[in-house]
Task: inverse folding
């Protein structure tokens, strides 16, 4: 089936005028890897770079959706336009099914200044890293002041989210072993702000102490470096959310003041460029494989007439 | 530190004469990604293609080491030379530490016809797929009749092992939910032989039935296709091992008879060539990034003067 043709200029114009439908269509193009993406991204480029990207990650059960909801409330009180990308690295599905749940869960499902989208991070090629940055770009160009990327902390996804966000919030809940889990998963290095949610539960203070202690042990207390605050919230009661908002503001201020923000964004764009280039090379490689070029070489390797390095040289020459 | 220079011809000659020390050194070169690897692989090439590669995978606790031990016993009774690669996808360590345990566990630690090596599958770039095929190549060229690759069934690793092996054995143990786990992890598709170990435990027959049932439900019962047998063993008592050996023989016979063996090996060599080529491209990409070429483009993207696709085109042109 040939992909449906897309009127990119009018789609981008509609998205910029606030059409949720146009935004949805653009993100679907991203998810589908549609051929029109090149044109879309070129059209979006002049309008990007304004949104503050906040990553929110945490293990299942720490209250990510409730916390997102509470944060969106605080952002809406400030009059901010918000885009939410709920990325599920374990789901092979995107869009529809999950979105239904999300919409029911959110107080802001009907707010025209809030755009909510569930995304699957399909494929093994780096989970979040392929589609999410482009979806962020769509929401940014569509005028979102803040793009909130929420992902469950599973495997690599929380490290990846830190690569995508200006500010990364790591959510925890009181309970045994949280500290150790944190250290293990490497979240100490990625969190700009730590939030212990469900702070009315036993052990909240101990978890806060654990995290603070581990941050002190780490190398993140040098002068001039950002020292991540460790805050407590009860998101279901919207308690502690103002302090989180304050911490976000301070982090933005710190990043903007010393050039970290620009640095992070340049690194992020570099990662994006790299992943697009690598994807293009992999596609060319796929063509070489289906066109039997690689297979003939592989047969020589199997027969002991060549070796994988020599064969790879031939493939590289053909790619180039 | 400049890598120690390597006398490749004499190292390869020693490995082919049965020196465990030379084999160890060659596999270390593989693990280190040593610059001499090209020369090593070229020198090994004419001597490869003889070993039968058996993959053995299963969840923790199903008795992989005991089963490996029992299989090696049966292979030794037939006078076969055996190489064992124990790949731990979760370990950041390789060689030494784990090897000690493995050696203590094995009845064949002192048998000069058995080579045992623990390998870490370092890095996120495809787990097993990078170093393991080259280590297999070393053992193959060193005269191993069988190379047994043992890996714990975690995440992608069991699917990857099937890509590396001529014959993949999936180990299970009796117990609730095994069947469902099997279906989830996709092992039904990858197993050439299923073995329910610890068959003296309750539920062994039920697990066998479950797996048989799921194989029947799958698309693996068409005429001419291999229908994976589901066997029972008590590896600790070496019970049922003869039946596994028989199944392996039958699988080899089936694969050789209809060209599947050659087909699998060609696909495997193709994967290896591709991963070497992609690695080389990533290294060139790394050079472009550290040389600021990508960074300058990324800054333009951040400033809205370019978009990631246009920038990727420039990078691709520079790579090529």
Result:
């Amino acid at each position: 089936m040939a992909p449906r043709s897309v009127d990119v200029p009018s789609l981008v114009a509609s998205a910029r005028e606030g059409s949720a439908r146009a935004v949805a269509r653009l993100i679907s193009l991203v998810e589908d890897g549609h051929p029109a993406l090149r044109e879309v991204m070129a059209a979006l480029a002049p309008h990007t770079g304004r949104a503050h990207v906040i990553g929110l990650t945490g293990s299942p059960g720490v209250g990510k959706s409730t916390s997102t909801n509470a944060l969106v409330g605080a952002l809406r009180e400030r009059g901010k336009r918000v885009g939410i990308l709920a990325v599920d690295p374990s789901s092979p599905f995107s869009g529809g099914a999950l979105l239904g749940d999300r919409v029911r869960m959110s107080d802001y499902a009907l707010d025209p200044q809030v755009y909510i989208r569930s995304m699957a991070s399909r494929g093994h090629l780096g989970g979040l890293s392929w589609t999410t940055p482009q979806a962020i770009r769509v929401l940014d160009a569509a005028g979102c002041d803040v793009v909130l990327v929420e992902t469950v902390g599973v495997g690599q996804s929380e490290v990846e989210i830190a690569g995508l966000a200006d500010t990364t919030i790591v959510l925890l809940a009181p309970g045994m072993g949280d500290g150790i889990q944190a250290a293990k998963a490497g979240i100490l290095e990625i969190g700009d702000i730590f939030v212990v949610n469900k702070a009315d539960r036993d052990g909240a203070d101990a978890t806060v102490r654990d995290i603070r202690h581990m941050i002190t042990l780490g190398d993140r207390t040098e002068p001039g470096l950002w020292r991540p605050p460790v805050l407590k919230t009860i998101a279901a009661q919207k308690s502690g959310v103002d302090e989180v908002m304050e911490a976000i503001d301070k982090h933005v201020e710190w990043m903007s003041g010393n050039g970290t923000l620009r640095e992070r964004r340049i690194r992020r764009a570099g990662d994006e460029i790299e992943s697009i280039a690598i994807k293009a090379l992999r596609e060319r490689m796929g063509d070489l494989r289906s066109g039997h070029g690689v297979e003939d070489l592989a047969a020589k390797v199997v027969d002991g007439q060549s070796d994988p390095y020599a064969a790879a040289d031939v493939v590289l020459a053909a790619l180039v």
